[in-house]
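Supplementary Methods S3. Input chains for the assembly prediction are listed below.
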Amino acid sequence: MTGELLLGAYVFILAIFVGFEVISKVPSTLHTPLMSGANAIHGIIVVGAMLVVLALPGPLGTVLGFLAVVLGTANVVGGFVVTDRMLGMFQQRPRRPAAKAPEKR
Amino acid sequence: MDVQAWIPVVYLVTAVTFVLGLKGLSGPTTAVAGNRVAAAGMLLAVAFTFAAKEFQQYGGTGIALTVAGMAVGSVAGVAGGRLVKMTAMPQMVALFNGAGGGAAALVSILEYLHGVERGDVAAGAVLSVALGLMIGAVSFSGSGIAFGKLQGIISPRAYRYAGQQVVTVGVFAAMLLIGLLLTLQAGWGVNVLPGPTAIWLLAVLALIFGVVLVIPIGGADMPVVISLLNAYTGLAVAMAGFVLGNQLLIVAGTLVGASGTILTRLMSKAMNRSLANVLFAGVGAAAGATVARAGDDTRTVREVSAEDTAILLGYAQDVIIVPGYGLAVAQAQHAVRELADMLEAKGVNVRYAIHPVAGRMPGHMNVLLAEANVPYDKLKDMDDINDDFKTSDVALVIGANDVTNPAARTDKGSPIYGMPILNVDQAKNVVVIKRSMRSGFAGIDNELYLDQRTGMLFGDAKQAVERVITELKKAA
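Predicted structure tokens for the full assembly:
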């Protein structure tokens, strides 16, 4: 096993534990935004796409590289926008008209 | 230190923002900040990648191509994320997830073909390539099918065919075989198929596998499937990280893979089903027959008018509203809020019972009702309110179906048997607002509608609620 691969394996295994720990006890209300947020995070593949964008010379490589960047960016941008929009709906909550009479229309 | 030396440090910072972001997203008060922290980290990583020497070597063409690709991707992302209605959010998550899976698969393919060209392919790297490609492509096509089902392009019903298991297992085995051949070829020079041919074959097989994996699953289970595919994409990204020797991709992908797996388990637990059951049981497979029978059942159903409903609600002390997908489709949340306000002005105690999987995704109803400014403390989780149905006067079911079906409790033969349901049938009176007698997403009949205490108020959720409001105003 090369050093780089071994290092990668360390990172991989440790990240599994972090991933498991971070998500313990999530209220079901937040399942969807959390999924959407995680969805945005794996959009980091766009960095990978940049690193290979022209790795393969010729038209095929160019088209595939371009597509990879497009898809990766859509993943990042769409993911964060959707999550933000979902969470925005929760935000205006703290006002609670508890015992007060409800507004008349 | 020059920029090159800073890049790994920036990647480390980004990895930390992702951990903090996920942590933040799992708490209601920290969620918004969590999402933004992760987004900022992402921006930082992408910006510094522009300066990386691996990227710089592609010169101006590389920059132009990347910027153009990012422009297209951003427009698609913003348009998809901003303009789509709240009800369509679940399928947008599926779509963006599929995009990520597709990108991971493409990165794997490019890196492999690049390696072949250089004449430098190691067994370890090829194993990562094969895994990244397989998982990414499965996620891509699977998410596409999930999107199609939720969007109604493909029938949301579980699609089963003869020999389905054989096909699924066959495609899977073929995929593993090709992956093995690729690895053997790179490591031990076993030449059965030329590498590039094998890689394309693998891509096609993986795309097919994604389709055969998701197509037999009913629309009601799509949230769980999307969550699972989300975890897959994370893994595919981690594999791409191995291929490129990029730690940030490994960390981020693995985080999502691990947390996504936990989340998938939480979600299937909320439906009281095991993951295996979701993937292989095919809820709603026998839907055709039950839908046809619904025609006869209308005879025994008691239909009520908006006026009856208004009187019933007006004289009640305790009303529990049970929202479902029908409410989301009709965008009835504001009308429902208005109705609740009127009832509360009359001294009626109004609460909302939220089933964990009401709508199409967990939390779907909370989001919609929060949009209409329904106070958060009125929204009750199933476990908190289920015992209160016994003492409530009216349970008002608005566009919810399967989550109220008593068959889940009693009928062992029912496909949703064992799913926890809201005890709507224990309320003194039940009013169900529904467009027609059509069965719900699971494709099965609901005995609740035949109960003597149940009145059916037919119509679009929003219009029906507005009719009730009008009647209430008349009575006042």
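Residues 27-91 of chain A form one domain. Chain A touches chain B through 90 residues (CB under 8 Å).
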